[in-house]
Design a protein that fits this description.
With 789 residues, the chain is mainly beta. The protein contains five helices and 53 strands. The strands form seven sheets. The chain has a 17-stranded antiparallel beta sheet that branches. Strands 1, 2, 3, 4, 5, 6, 7, 8, 14, 15, 41, 42, 43 and 44 form a 14-stranded mixed beta sheet that branches. Strands 16, 35, 36, 39, 40, 45, 46, 49, 50, 52 and 53 form an eleven-stranded mixed beta sheet that branches. A hairpin with a 2-residue loop joins strand 3 and strand 4.
């Protein structure tokens, strides 16, 4: 193949002459090294999908003035018209090889590898950032990029992509690790070219390959059978049963043993800030009058412009209002009468009217009044500040659902912007606002119990909120710390004789807590807060189990049946990324996998000169789509380029041989990372058909509770009316569910409230809804009673 001819016209092209330019960072700028390229070992480029690009080079010294490229030297390789094939830096030690003695002295060959600009970003480990919450994948990538090397790259080509419910950078991870993860989460590809970063959908550019044309002569294909129609997906540990444990105090017992191991999440502490400064990776500061400062372990606010929302210190990530969330807004000391909102959660704009929950501070004479602000209105009780006192303001949120956004999963049929996922769950939340008033002159107040200003249920809270530590109209205060933690997802309530139920504050004694939950599992009250005799204690939480789901495609199963073959083509997949946090997530991950589990899978290799690339293509990159038409092999499919190898054959004529490797989703999934922990794959998991996802299970009973206890019976209210054609099934253990199994059955009831027998001090009841079609709730509700007879 004559590389000097244009393969489409047969006419010899005018050469642009490939150029190799290297800046050794010695102040001389880019220098032309083209003449030094070893003609026996011409440059090779290796591009892989969502992996850094490599350029391998060999240079031969051309005289005494030859400068050996230094590690970190900037490298440009491309055409003289500015079309770059590679831009990066020398990232390996240069290998020296003595070739002999020439006219100008000793001759050496210098071989090295240059990497694209991921190398400069990867030199800086990603710092400990708060998890990204409900953000576009591209937005998260841009934030990490700007954190590591602000203003170093043109990031205008980073598109937002699909929202990611939750993503935490792994400790010690590199920029390229984060970029690869986010590319999987959004079904995207990233690229670094000429100091610019792009993040865009896979397949944005399409290369047509047709064997009927000259361009198809070097096409090789491989077909496989990767058909799947029965997929079990295993995810993370999920919140499963709804559990309510009932105890009664005796005046001296401090410890009460829980019936189940509560679900707990990783990354418990989201923020622990002591204000040696204002960390730009955490806080966004709007300070028009320069009244905000941070140093010496204190955040200070000394004024404001009187406008609601104008002077604020806002956490840069959203707060997911799921499970138990504890926000300690700091040890606050007031220096004078103040006006504003501290520790505000806002559904949209930062303003008093849009405040879901916060502490409203208003001036009263020479001091201030602190009141709870709930849904933009003053609620609950208040306190008045005193000079010299310190106040720890805490917001506790106990949402009825742990996760407020479903994970999104992608396939060819559900690409960027159209991922599969369950509906985002709605939730009510109990919100508790408390203040721990500490008087430095009275050490006993340091471990005193906090004062609860507000404790009630707020219906249908938003899934995500903005958090503004300070919204100052005219604030005179200092704040010593701010801490945000995901607490153990359990709500403790108690009711002393003749009183109403109140929320018991969990946490350390120094933070004003009354009790704590341990891994035993148990509930432990501090000695100063021992429950009174006959004080009723309720603990509500979720138990934990492995998220899992099995989904079948009955149409495909029937199509594959033949003789003794039942047609099932099954597989078990542990999905690590995108992470299925619930069994509902596992269902949609299985659906996405079934989307790509076609009868045939295709992968192939295409070799061609750069001058003969089909259509108007000037170059090919991983992440491009290829549309293949090869009638001789029965192939007509679309795939994604996974790797491009470029071997430069002639610098003057710009001739380069391209080897393009591609594959479709069935051959090599692009939107998932799989693990190998398949030991927990259940044998009796209920299989759902593709068409019935979202309809296989009935709603669970999260609000079921015991309403009356006697020595021989308990009364249960399930919180909702049963199905018209079904009812509530009650069992002694969480097993055997079904209308044909009566082994551990206590009874089936068709009313919302009913009574069951009690035989012992400690007893358990497990509840699920059912209907005439044999459908049941996905999760059980467990009611555990430990009362004296």
């Amino acid at each position: 193949m004559d590389a000097s001819l244009d393969r489409r016209t047969g006419i010899k092209r005018e050469s642009d002459n490939m150029k190799l330019m290297i800046d050794n960072l010695d102040g001389k700028g880019l220098q032309d090294y083209t003449a030094a390229i070893d003609m026996s070992q011409l440059p090779q480029l290796r591009r892989k999908l969502n992996v850094r690009t490599e350029l391998e080079l060999s240079l031969v010294s051309s005289g005494e003035d030859f400068v050996v490229p230094a590690r970190g030297a900037r490298v440009r390789f491309g055409r003289s018209n500015g079309k770059e094939m590679f831009y990066g830096q020398v990232s390996s030690d240069v290998k020296h090889e003595y070739l002999g003695f020439g006219e100008k002295g000793p001759v050496y060959r210098y071989t090295f590898v240059a990497f694209s600009d991921e190398a400069s970003l990867d030199q800086k480990p990603v710092p400990a950032l708060p998890p990204f919450v409900n953000r576009g994948a591209g937005e998260a990538l841009q934030w990490v990029t700007d954190t590591l090397l602000p203003n170093a790259f043109d990031t205008s080509g980073i598109q937002a992509g699909d929202n990611v419910p939750w993503y935490a950078c792994r400790s010690g991870s590199r920029w390229s690790d984060v970029a690869a993860d986010l590319s999987i989460l959004a079904r995207a590809n990233y690229r670094l070219e000429n100091e610019a970063i792009s993040f865009s959908p896979l397949g944005s550019s399409v290369l047509a390959i047709d064997e009927s044309t000259e361009n198809g002569a070097s096409l090789s294909l491989q077909r496989g059978d990767h058909s799947l129609n029965d997929i079990t997906v295993l995810g993370r540990i999920e919140p499963s049963m709804y559990v309510k444990d009932y105890f009664v105090g005796d005046g001296f017992s401090l410890k009460f043993y829980l019936s189940q191991v509560p679900f707990t999440r990783s990354s418990r502490t989201l923020v622990d800030e002591e204000f040696s400064g204002l960390d730009a990776t955490r806080w966004v500061v709007n300070d028009p009058l320069s009244v905000v400062g941070a140093s010496g372990g204190k955040l200070t606010v000394t004024g404001g412009n009187g406008v609601d929302g104008a002077t604020r210190i806002e956490f840069h990530e959203s707060m997911e209002l799921g499970g138990a969330l504890v926000l300690q807004h700091g040890d606050v000391e007031f220096g004078g009468p103040s006006s504003g909102i501290l520790g505000g959660l806002y559904s949209e704009e930062i303003s008093a009217s849009g405040c879901l929950a916060g502490f409203l501070v208003t001036p009263i004479g020479s001091s201030s009044q602190i009141q709870p602000l709930i849904n933009g209105r003053v609620s609950g009780t208040d306190i008045f500040t005193q000079s010299g006192h310190h106040y720890v303001l805490t917001t506790r949120i106990y949402a009825s659902e742990v996760y407020r956004a479903a994970q999104r999963f992608h396939s060819i049929a559900h690409p960027w912007g159209a991922g599969r996922g369950a509906a985002d769950p709605t939730a009510d939340a109990r919100i508790v606002l408390e203040i721990h008033d500490m008087n430095p002159a009275d050490p006993a107040t340091v471990v005193g119990t906090s004062t609860v200003l507000y404790d009630d249920i707020v219906s249908n809270v938003p899934g995500f909120c903005r958090y503004s530590l300070v919204n100052a109209m005219d604030m005179q205060c200092s704040i010593a710390f701010t801490r945000i933690t995901q607490a153990m997802d359990a709500l403790v309530r108690s009711c002393a004789s003749g009183q109403i139920f109140r929320t018991r504050l969990t946490g350390s004694l120094a933070d004003g807590g009354e009790c704590r939950l341990t891994e035993e599992p148990s509930l432990y009250f501090y000695p100063s807060n021992v429950p009174d005799p006959n004080e009723l204690i309720h603990v509500s939480y979720r138990s934990r189990s492995r998220a899992r789901a099995r989904v079948m495609d009955p149409v495909s199963i029937v199509a594959h049946r033949h003789g003794s073959d039942d047609g099932v083509r099954g597989a078990v997949r542990q999905v690590l990324l995108p992470s299925p946090r619930t069994s509902a997530d596992c269902e949609h991950a299985a659906l996405a996998l079934l989307d790509d589990a076609t009868s045939n899978s295709w992968q192939g290799r295409y070799q061609i000169w750069n001058s003969a690339l089909p259509g108007d293509a000037e170059d090919v990159f991983p992440g491009d789509a290829v549309q293949v038409n090869a009638e001789s092999q029965g192939a007509n499919f679309e795939a994604i380029v996974r790797e491009v190898q470029i071997r430069v054959r002639d610098l003057e004529e710009e001739a380069a041989a391209y080897t393009i490797r591609f594959a479709d989703e069935a051959a090599e999934p692009l939107s998932f990372v799989f693990g190998n922990d398949l030991g927990a794959a259940p044998q009796d998991l209920i299989a759902s058909e593709k068409s019935s996802i979202g309809q296989t299970f009935l709603p669970s009973l999260p609000f079921a509770e015991i309403t009356k206890v006697s020595s021989t019976a308990v009364t249960v209210d399930v919180g909702t009316d049963p199905q018209a054609d079904g009812g509530i099934e009650v069992r002694r253990t969480d097993a055997g569910w079904g209308l044909t199994n009566d082994r551990n059955l206590i009874g089936r009831f068709e009313s919302r409230s009913f009574s069951v027998d009690r035989f012992a001090r400690t007893q358990d009841w497990y509840l699920r809804q059912y209907d005439a079609a044999g459908r049941y709730s996905r999760y059980s509700t467990a009611l555990h009673l430990d009362y004296p007879l």
